[in-house]
Amino acid sequence: MHNKKIFFLLAILWTLVVTYLSLATFEDVSSDIKVPFKDKFVHFTFYMMFVILWSLFFKQSKYNYKILFAAIGYGIVMEICQKLFTTTRSADILDVIANTTGAIVGLLIITKIFNNKTTH
């Protein structure tokens, strides 16, 4: 029961961080590190961890696809919110693809973890 509370708090916190970082304005952010598509890697990681943390909270494989679709929907909603409610951010279909890919990889990772626990 204690782990369930921890995973719930982590999943909520992660969701809030993703929301904030998706909608906040970062005008003074510059980086000397030039990595192609680094923002897509960030989107990928956000939604991979979203699926992993929520799946660890629910701990039942029957919810895995619901969590996956919730993550994909949430990513799309965040992109729409960027377009509608921010002046410095814009919606990007490549971000949606990165979010979706990260969510799918998160599902694959969590499925592997759950399968390993049930076979040992």
UniProtKB/TrEMBL annotation:
Keyword Nucleus: no
Domain of life where this protein originates: Bacteria
Keywords noted in UniProt: Membrane, Transmembrane, Transmembrane helix
Pfam families: VanZ (PF04892)
Segments forming domain VanZ-like: 38-111
InterPro entries attached to this UniProt entry: VanZ-like
Transmembrane segment boundaries: 40-58, 65-85, 97-114
Protein name per UniProt: VanZ-like domain-containing protein
Organism: Flavobacterium chungnamense
